[in-house]
Amino acid sequence: MLSYALNYWIQVGYTKGYDTNYRLKWYAEKYDQSGYKMTWWTSSYPSAGATYNYWIRRSDAGVWTGGVSNFWTWSFGTLNPNVAKDYQALSESTSTSINIDGTHFSSLCVLSYNGIDWIPWYRHVTIVDPPYTVTQVSNSEFYASGGG
Fold first, then answer.
1. Nearest to 24 by CA among 11, 41, 4, 9
2. How far is Cα 95 from Cα 66, in angstroms, rounded to an integer?
3. Does the pLDDT of residue 146 top 90, yes or no?
4. Would you list the domain boundaries of the chain?
5. Closest CA relative to residue 30, chosen from 60, 61, 6
6. Are the beta carbons of 26 and 46 closer than 8 angstroms?
7. How far is CA 45 from its chain centroid?
8. Cys bridge to 38: 14, 29, 124, 141, which one at CB 3.0-4.6 A?
9. What is the pTM of this model?
10. Using only C-alpha atoms, what is the Rg of the chain?
11. What is the mean pLDDT of residues 2-20?
């Protein structure tokens, strides 16, 4: 999250729906003062049930990049605003009929100020909308389920 007041963000993830022809696809998305942009990665695709490492990083020069380890990297460029206000991990759905059983976030980390070490999340705030549930393992790991 870049700004709560203006609802600006950057994110990487995967999605499946009408806009992807109901096929799993990776994406990078940003919304800042310059506007909205979503980029699809089509050289490879995620597989249901597989585990992937997603990341976002800001360089010393202020350029944001993100992607999926060993698959792709995307440059968001220099954003406006150009600072992270919050880090979030979430599973979104457009309908309570969508079943998210098996959703698992683990090893959630933030890059340290030295730009080298990844530090596990040390706190969390859980927000859940019925019919979904969250099972917290630690501050840096959780499962989400429900729907359908």
1. 41
2. 27
3. yes
4. 9-146
5. 6
6. yes
7. 16
8. 29
9. 0.88
10. 16
11. 94
